[in-house]
Structure formats: C-alpha cells, structure tokens
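Worked example 4.2. Below are the chains of a multi-component assembly; read each line carefully before continuing.
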Amino acid sequence: MLPLHINVTDKKVLIVGGGKIATRRLQTFLNEGATIRVVSPEASKEIEELAETGVIQWEQKEITIEDLNSASIIIAATNHPEINEWIAEKASEHQLVNVVSSAEKGNLTIPKFVTKGRLTFSVSTNGASPLLAKQICEQIGNQFDEEFISELNRMYEERQNKKRNF
Amino acid sequence: MLPLHINVTDKKVLIVGGGKIATRRLQTFLNEGATIRVVSPEASKEIEELAETGVIQWEQKEITIEDLNSASIIIAATNHPEINEWIAEKASEHQLVNVVSSAEKGNLTIPKFVTKGRLTFSVSTNGASPLLAKQICEQIGNQFDEEFISELNRMYEERQNKKRNF
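Applying the procedure described above to all two chains together yields the following structure tokens:
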C-alpha cells in the first residue's frame, strides 16, 4: 500500500451499504467535496437526512453491476463480506475499491489522518490495530502547536511568492 | 487532499519525463510493484538501465494524447510546466495525475512516507516545505523502535487468527 494524497473534490464516490462504517466513510469523502451516491436498501439517519436535503444521492435498493460503472472510488461497506468482495472483483482496473470487511481484497484503504492547517499526516498499521493507529495519529498531532502551523502557512506564502516572481 | 493508501501492484503508471524527479517517482511506484511506462525523448541512466533489462518500458519520444489512455496513474514530470498541465487537462476523470511543477493542477500528490513493518505513515505540508515534511517524517519514524514493530506484527497475526476462527 502506497500512501498517496488525492484531491477527491467532485470525484464520484459510490458508497455501498448504509451502516456505521458506510456513514463514517461517507463523511470523510463528503468533507473533501466528493460527489456521493449511496446504494443500500437501508441507511443510517445521517444518510437519510443528507439525501433528503440533496447533499448526497441515496438509492434505496440492492447493488447491481451497473451501479459500479461511473464511480472513481467505491466503498464496499455492506454487512455481507461476499457482496463486498464481489464489488471488488467486478470493479474496473481504474477504480479504487475499499473493502471494509477485508481490506486486502480491495486496492484502497483509508488510514487514520490528521489535518492541521497545511500539515496532513496519516497513520496505518495495515490491519494490525485501527485503534492503535488512531491513538498514534492523535499523539503525533499533539506534537505540532499553533505556532508551528502558522509558520507553515508563512512558508507556503513565501514559496508561492517566489514561484510567481520566477 | 485526502490521504489514501493505495495498492499499486500491477497498476499501470505512466511517467512523462525522464529527469531526476521522474526517476524518483518511478522508483517509488516500482518498489510497490506497479507496471511502469516512461515516455520521454531523454532519460536518466537509471531509466535507461531499467528499460534495457525489461523491468520498465521506455518510449523515447514526445508525449501524445494517445499515450495517456491506458494508465491509472500519470506522473507529469517533464521540464515544461505547460506540457505537465496539458496532461492534467487531458486526463480522464478516473485517472490520477501528479503534476510535479505545480501540484494544485493535478489531483494527486505523493507525500513523504515511512514504512516500518506494518506501520506506514505519511507527512505532507501541502506545498509549504517538502524538506520539512521529510524531516518530520524521519523524526516520527525514529519514535518507533523494533520492539514496537514486532508487537504490531504480533497484533496483526492475532487479529487474522480471530477472523479465521470466526
């Protein structure tokens, strides 16, 4: 697994499933401006509300192969591992698929991460302990104070000015 | 930018350009088992040698629009920012493009990262200072000793056994 930072703004993200993990993943991508479609016979209250207000699209039905076509990123988060794995098998080679029931069946995992101003870092234990990854992430986050984050902003502005004057 | 961990094994990666940065990016993806094609009139010695031994494919020519088609990931790393930006514009919506001359023109950046056993973490300052990102990454890496990494391995095995016995 290679850590990459991806701009998912306006990227089509398909969430299959409507439970807790599906909802958490949805929020991660929604926060980054992705265009989200949920396919699931049932869904959490959050998903229901987001769909009602038109922030996301929710199709209340079982997943079919046609649903997979247009998404750049697919989160296979149903309660049925065999359905999740079927999604990973049927996805095209350009698509990124996160299989929540068994990460190694997909080609995408979502690490724990912290964003503080311009600083972003991610931690993954590659399946050893998501809880520990979260704790490590928080601990590392605490090592960077407001002053450091402001300094990063200043460095960024300076670098942009240099580029413009080049 | 959302930090995601992606399995690039056998993914088609197109490197446009053959200089220092192109070579460094190439090595990152090659280490992870990607299938690499370089398109560039000129290339570094490393690229030349890798192409000669058949580890990668190198087409000694200028980039054309047809070259972009089949890649899942494109690294636009020529010395000409306008060519790099043209690549980002012409890429399809499913493709991930890293524009080395101006990261914000692409939808993919490659953060500094460290892998120690099952632990992977990445650091990006989102354009403020790649050098500082590298230093932070090394500092954080030093906080985890061999014992911790072994413990992570043990936790992983335990978790896999639980899954199997479920």
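Take a moment to check your reading of the output against the notes. Chain A touches chain B through 48 residues (CB under 8 Å). Chain A has a mean pLDDT of 94.
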